[in-house]
Amino acid sequence: MPPLHVEQRDDGRWFATLETGEQFSEPEPNITAFLNVIEAFADPVRESRLSCDVREFNLGYDCGDEPWAFNHGLTAATLARMVALGISLRITLYPAEQTE
Q1: Does the pLDDT of residue 81 top 70, yes or no?
Q2: d(CA 3, CA 5)
Q3: What is the pLDDT of residues 11-54, one digit of tens each?
Q4: Coil, helix or strand at residue 55
Q5: Number of independent structural domains in the chain
Q6: Residue 59: domain span
């Protein structure tokens, strides 16, 4: 199973981050791996997940000077699975590190 990071925030609420053990060149295989696991949850786990305030996939990209442009996409089937599970999509762009 993917790496799991869990912490309790200052407001007393819990925050969990999951990552797949393998990174692919496109996000869809990673998202599909998570969807397969989530869809197989037993009822008690499924109900616990539904009590979460935020359920989202956050796609993170390290940005740099190259390539000039790129694109990644998700199929309608994957998006439909996310919608059925109440999962949002967020995209995070990390700036290139400054070298001096």
Answers
A1: yes
A2: 7
A3: 988 878 877 778 788 999 999 988 998 899 888 878 777 778 88
A4: coil
A5: 1
A6: 4-94
